């Protein structure tokens, strides 16, 4: 028998097992609201918000508006922003072992000994404007590893984009594909602003990284999925932005669609590429963008669908000079794709006589068409004339080197002479220094 309780003594707690059928064990949980991908309407059809809301949402570095009546709160928010930004340490991108040395063995002797070679302390901007892409790639790494703060993400990503893009321009894509791996997953929350949640990596670098990571990991599908991730973000930005910014995001979304088609072609999935391009052309049938239509037409030609390439400009208004120009170029390209080189020669001559615009492109395609019809001497003369005029793009030097191999047993001497002629040309932002592969050496 338990002893009686005295006044003021708390009643002892009785511990025991509550049966599962007891209602006290059932705690009702509120139903969480869910939303699937089909619940989101077409972002392109939604009306844009007001300019005030747009400026607050879409700015990548936007900070909460300060209240004049509460200066302490404003200073506290600014301090918190500074602390959070300082926590982003990108020092792992500044290690010298992340980057490969660049050899000069694949550069013709005429370029290595040229007086136009820049000195070591030439500013990076001057290297880029002068077309010294190899030197710019080296200079960007030197700046990254020696004089860049690990918390200055703007400077870091700008230099990293310069490094990767210049590597691709000097045909060192495989090196760029290895170096881009240090970025790992760019969709990680680590690359987002802790206050605004905006992505702190520039859009151009993210797009370039998607393709290079696909090459570096040997997985083209990884690159396609990366483009789709970026497209999802672009659609969200289109939905909540307005004005010129909305147009910018729509252009980016369309560009990603073209890149997906190009990636599918590189993968060899021509059937999938055709379906994707058809859907892309249907979705943008009302857009009057000649550049987009031209890119679509070239992709259709690369998969052998000449009829679809012609249809890309079928809806152009009659009488438009740009439309006629595109029609003429496209028709000549289609003739080449179908093996009708005599018709292609006629088309390219007509375009060359009609206007001086795009003369370099038209002349080179005319020379290639003449090559297939047996006009070797005329094709050589046309390409050498372009060289004398100061042109030196890759297709020009490569095709002229091919003609030298076809018309002479001393082609190596002719190609070395061609390299010397190009090395003596003035600097250009399109690229001055060439590699041995540009001259088939």
Describe this structure in words.
- The chain is mainly alpha-helical.
- Helices cover 57% and strands 0% of the residues.
- It is built from 19 helices and no strands.
- The protein has helices spanning 51-58, 71-86, 109-112, 124-129, 133-146, 153-169, 173-179, 203-216, 220-240, 243-267, 270-283, 290-302, 306-311, 321-337, 341-354, 359-372, 376-388, 394-407, 411-423.
- Helix 15 runs antiparallel to helix 16 and helix 18 runs antiparallel to helix 19.
- The protein is globular.
- The N and C termini lie far apart (107 Å).
Features:
441 residues; mainly alpha; 19 helices; globular
Topology (SSEs and partners):
Layout: H1 51-58, H2 71-86, H3 109-112, H4 124-129, H5 133-146, H6 153-169, H7 173-179, H8 203-216, H9 220-240, H10 243-267, H11 270-283, H12 290-302, H13 306-311, H14 321-337, H15 341-354, H16 359-372, H17 376-388, H18 394-407, H19 411-423
Helix content: 55-70%
> How many beta-strand segments?
0
Q: What share of the residues does DSSP label as strand, in percent?
A: under 5%
Helix count from the secondary structure assignment: 19
Order of helices and strands: HHHHHHHHHHHHHHHHHHH
Poorly predicted tracts of residues: 4-12, 20-86, 317-322
Main beta-sheet annotation: none
**Helix/sheet category:** mainly alpha
Q: Residue-averaged pLDDT, rounded? A: 81
Question: Whole-number radius of gyration?
Answer: 30 Å
Query: Which word captures the global form?
Result: globular
Span between N and C termini? Answer: 107 Å
Please provide a brief summary of the model.
With 441 residues, the protein is mainly α. The chain contains 19 helices and no strands.
């Amino acid at each position: 028998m338990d002893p009686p309780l005295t006044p003021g003594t708390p009643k002892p707690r009785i511990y025991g097992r509550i049966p599962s059928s007891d209602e006290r064990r059932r705690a009702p949980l509120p139903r969480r609201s869910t939303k699937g991908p089909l619940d989101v309407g077409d972002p392109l059809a939604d009306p844009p918000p007001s300019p005030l809301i747009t400026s607050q949402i879409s700015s990548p570095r936007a900070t909460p508006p300060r209240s004049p009546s509460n200066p302490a709160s404003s200073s506290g928010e600014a301090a918190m922003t500074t602390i959070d930004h300082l926590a982003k340490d990108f020092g792992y991108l500044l290690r010298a072992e992340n980057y490969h040395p660049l050899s000069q063995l694949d550069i013709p002797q005429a370029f290595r000994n040229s007086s136009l070679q820049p000195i070591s302390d030439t500013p990076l901007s001057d290297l880029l404007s002068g077309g010294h892409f190899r030197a710019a790639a080296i200079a960007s790494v030197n700046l990254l590893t020696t004089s860049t703060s690990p918390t200055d993400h703007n400077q870091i990503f700008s230099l990293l984009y310069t490094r990767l893009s210049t590597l691709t321009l000097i045909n060192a894509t495989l090196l760029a594909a290895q170096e881009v791996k240090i970025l790992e997953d760019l969709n990680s929350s680590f690359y987002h602003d802790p206050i605004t949640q905006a992505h702190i990596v520039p859009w151009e670098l993210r797009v370039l990284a998607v393709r290079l990571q696909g090459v570096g990991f040997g997985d083209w599908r990884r690159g396609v999925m990366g483009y789709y991730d970026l497209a999802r973000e672009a659609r969200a930005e289109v939905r909540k932005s307005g004005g010129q910014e909305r147009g910018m995001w729509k252009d980016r979304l369309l560009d990603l669609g073209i890149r997906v088609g190009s990636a599918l072609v590189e993968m060899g999935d021509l059937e999938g590429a055709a379906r994707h391009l058809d859907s892309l052309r249907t979705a943008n049938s009302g857009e009057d963008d000649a550049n987009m239509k031209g890119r679509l037409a070239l992709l259709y030609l690369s998969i052998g669908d000449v009829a679809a390439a012609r249809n890309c400009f079928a809806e152009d208004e009659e009488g438009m000079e740009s439309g006629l120009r595109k029609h003429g170029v496209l028709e000549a390209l289609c003739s080449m794709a179908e093996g009708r080189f005599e018709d292609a020669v006629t088309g390219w001559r007509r375009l060359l006589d009609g206007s001086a615009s795009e003369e370099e492109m038209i002349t080179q395609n005319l020379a290639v068409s003449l090559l297939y019809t047996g006009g070797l001497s005329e094709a050589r003369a046309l390409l050498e004339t372009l060289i004398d005029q100061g042109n030196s793009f890759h297709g020009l030097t490569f095709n002229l080197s091919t003609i030298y191999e076809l018309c002479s047993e001393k082609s190596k001497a002719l190609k070395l002479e061609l390299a010397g002629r190009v090395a003596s040309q003035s600097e250009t932002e399109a690229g001055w220094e060439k590699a041995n592969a540009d001259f088939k050496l």
